[in-house]
What we know:
A: 17 helices; globular; B: mainly alpha; two-stranded antiparallel sheet
Amino acid sequence: MPAPDPAQPFWQMEGISKRYGGVTALDNVDFTCRRGRIHAVLGENGAGKSTLIKIMAGVVQPDSGTMRLEGRSVTFAAPVDAMRQGVVSIFQELSLIPDLSVADNLSIVDPPRRFGFIDRAAQRRRAEDLLARVGCDDVHPLELVRNLPLSRRQMVEIAGALGRSPKMLILDEATSALTVADVEKIYEILRRLRGEGLAIVYISHRMHEIAALADDCSVFRNGQHIETFAKGAKTDNEIVELMIGREYRHVFPPKPARNASPEPMLEVEKLSWGDRLTDISLKVDRGEVVGIGGLDGQGQRELLLALFGVLSGVSGTVKVAGQAARLTSPRHAKSPGVGMALIPEDRKTEGLMLPMSVRDNISLAAVEKFTHGLLIDRSAERRAVEDMVQRLAIRAGSADAAVGTLSGGNQQKVVIAKWLMTEARLILLNDPTRGIDVGTKQEIYQLLRRLADAGNAILLYTTDYDELIGCCDRVVMLYDGRIVRELSGNALTERNIVTSALNLPFDAAAEARP
Amino acid sequence: MRELRMRLAQNYGPLVAFGLFVLIFAVYIGNHPAGLTVAVATTAANKGVLLALVGMAQTLPVLTGGLDLSVGMIFVMCNCIASAMVNGSPLQTATGVAAVLLAGLACGLLNGAIIVYGRLQPIITTLATGAIYYGIALAIRPVPGGEVNEALSDALTNQVFDTVPTTLVLLAAVVIVIWLPFRASALGRGCYAAGSSEPAAYMSGVDINRSKLAAYALCGLLAAVAGLLLTFVTDSGEASAPGGSVYTLNSIAAVVIGGTSLLGGVGGVIGAIFGAFVLRTIGDLLFVFDLPPLWQPLIQGAILLAALSLGAARVLRIRNRLELFG
Lengths: 514, 326
């Protein structure tokens, strides 16, 4: 193999585009990495970072464009193809196999063999070596991965990546679950690997990590590669500036003036759950739409699940309409005394019974309302469903059609209709507009505002910052399972949201004053 | 010390099955009028090993997160083929044995190919193919009958050195020749990986398809070994649908009692062997206590439930209730 030529880019992508349905995730992107450099990739939610590295790792295939590794054109049909070429990725969703031991996992692809069989002793020595390399001597190689805490698993994952003798290492939020001491070890390893001539792509939402590690930074926005610059060439503020500035595509209904004497609907005091949620306190009044913001995976989903009674072992107090509520199951959360509804994240698995009819889906959560004695009153149910279909303008051939045959936007309306049937007064939404068309989005914004105006309270988690700004009266920003800032009124700007999402201090000059 | 504890914890299922078997078998022998004689042990072994082999077969698809409902029918079909072919001169007999094993392997491969490449669900696929295999069995042997090489039959159903039942030696040989190499191969590892977390296995570049195919193929092969042995024990072949179904269901029970998770990824055939012995000994136990044999299903069911509860303890630790359905 010829010595790496520093002038020759190790990895080159040209004109890469990827669309999911009607949504463009990457738009004609060029991206280049060199050996011996740590290259940070930055961008908001939905900027295209994940799609970029999924393409690099062979998890998804681009619609168009070319990729070159050391000048040779390559295509990856599956993750294993990328690995064979020395492109090794560490993803947020761990790729370890829970019921196998650490040693098995570390040699999952090419185990050391003797006479064609896996050599367990050699495999164990290899595991000990790799664990020692990442400074993880406390993990026993024969322990099952299932029994390790998340931070140890992450270290095992990193050890496994090193064991594949990578030429290029891609880390996607690889430090998110680690302790401070582990992060230091990872820094040290990455710097050493850089010295050995690896190309390293590093995705992190933590600006201080990027400051500590990166040589180059690339900013993505709206599926486009905006700019690449050497670390230190720009201030944090300038980087935030590059990340924001996407065009407003939605029209939002006007927000009403704040109620002078608010009636609280939801009061949460010091809610915690394991190490994922810490001391969350927040309040939502009647008539209010409160947003939950932050980068993906900062505890937003867990917060909604905790309120809806899905998680066990939640501490803290929750009051609904002034009454202390002990939330132990979705069934309890939706009961008339509490009146909560959750529009879940994944409508296909948690929201709908796809093969069942529109009618059955809409009446599912409120079926007790139509039940007299043992039987469901089909005509009362039919009338109520007709009503709801009209109210939300659900476009379905017939209420008897299977929900799976509807478009994504109409499916989402069915989920919302289902929960409106329960006459909930506190509505939690988990990213309700993801993957649906613009027209339906507008209708959902109108609907949320109408529901709030009718005296309900809305708690909305969305990954779309436009929605936080356009739909919400107030926004709480989560970072690492904590509320780091609350934004409202004139302070509810994209700049402030991005700055808070990265947990950066507000620049005195940049802070908007009400 | 830590290592020993870990190994114990990781083999909890088979150890429980082993302990349960020793306990039940001791009670059985203690109350048997003849005590532990060679004859008593041989009879117990011959019955137990049949189910143990079918249980071993079932373990492999279960490890990958699947299930094989055709295993009992492959067993019956191979019994019928053997009753027609395993006879005559040593060469003819050997050819017959090879044909039976190949037939089982082919059935397993077909199951695997449909499930892996056709992407059909294992349960319904093997329910359908099981009916086909039973049809073949009926075609070969519309009425019970046939015969088998007597010398071989006698050798296999008696003892080695007049002490150890030959079927136990056969079982040990199958474990050593088939299971241990499989467990130590990348193929076997792939089965555990696919059953434990298929997405993670895919992301790690494991060849999931090849592993699953191998699991179903070996399942067919092991069922064929059992079918062959049944022919030697009964000296005839019978296309018995109830017989096949009972073996299928009991094989699943043996797998579960042996600590293998029906979700896949955890367990092994050693547990299934003792699970099968436990199920078989319960029947004998009723006999020595003079209880009506009608009680057998009830007690087997209770044992199965108890074994399942031991395995379900992890549910108590789950903190996100959505994971209960995962």
